[in-house]
Design a protein that fits this description.
Layout lengths: L1 H17 L5 E10 L5 E9 L2 E11 L2 E13 L2 E23 L9 E7 L5 E17 L2 E19 L3 E3 L8 E4 L2 E6 L2 E12 L6 E19 L2 E19 L1
Antiparallel strand pairs: 1-4, 1-14, 2-3, 3-5, 4-5, 5-6, 5-7, 7-8, 8-11, 8-12, 9-10, 12-13, 13-14
Length: about 250
């Protein structure tokens, strides 16, 4: 967020010192973002002096969010565009566990457990997009195509361990909890998109518009030292909102 504020100050200063009217455009959108592709996680840990293993599959729901940015005119139809977007989602998923037997060490006799993950799992994604934009104006319509670099912050709940009950002869287990562990990654990727705005009045300061964007980066999340989970951040976003012209 600090980088976005700094970029906004730089763009505003450039627009102000350029001395031309209506060089700066403020964009605020409500967005709808498709959920990231499903991702898998595998984690191993030691139990009863042997190796236990949990395999999990996750899926994050599509969600609404916020997108805001500034675009400044650099030269004729060329502009610089910086934006910040954020969405929060619910995660769903399943797990399968392979647990050592406490009485049969080294005999490859494991207990199996599986189930659905609880509704406590969450996924949060934000990104700062820094782009070059090319566009123009036709009457009340204002359009632009943009592309550039995106810096993501991804926070996803993953599986680190599970809690269970068992009783003699310990051949079966009853899972009582699979607590989420929040992990974070900050990958860098790319984005590209387009927007179309309608301005009220020939020289008014207000308008409305729509935006579409595709972005992508791969976050490498580590729920434990011995495991890495690759999550494809970004995807398709569509937004509608307000425009201010200065």
């Amino acid at each position: 967020m600090k980088r976005l504020v700094l970029a906004a100050v730089v763009l505003f200063g450039f627009a102000h010192t350029a001395g031309a009217a209506e060089r700066l455009r403020v964009i605020a959108n409500g967005i709808f973002s498709a959920g990231p592709a499903g991702f898998d996680a595998t984690h191993s840990f030691t139990e009863f002096l042997e190796t236990a293993r949990i395999d999990a599959h996750f899926k994050a729901d599509s969600a609404a969010g916020f997108d805001g940015g500034l675009q400044v005119k650099v030269f004729k139809g060329l502009g610089a565009f910086v934006a910040y977007s954020q969405t929060r989602r619910n995660e769903s998923g399943t797990f399968q566990a392979r647990l050592p037997h406490p009485l049969y060490f080294g005999r490859f006799r494991f207990r199996e457990a599986s189930g659905d993950l609880s509704s406590a799992y969450r996924y949060k994604e934000s990104a700062i997009h820094a782009d070059l934009a090319v566009g123009g104006v036709k009457g009340h319509l204002d359009y632009a195509f943009f592309a550039g670099v995106s810096r993501f912050t991804v926070e996803a709940d993953l599986v680190e361990t599970l809690r269970y009950d068992h009783a003699y002869p310990y051949d079966t287990v009853t899972v009582t909890e699979v607590p989420p562990k929040t992990t974070k990654g900050t990958p860098t990727g790319f984005n590209a998109g387009a927007r179309l705005d309608y301005r009220f009045g020939a020289s008014g300061h207000f308008g409305v518009g729509g935006l579409v964007r595709f972005s992508r980066a791969t976050a490498k999340l580590k729920p434990a030292d011995d495991s890495t989970v690759n999550v494809d951040a970004g995807g398709f976003q569509g937004g509608l909102g307000l425009r201010l012209y200065f």
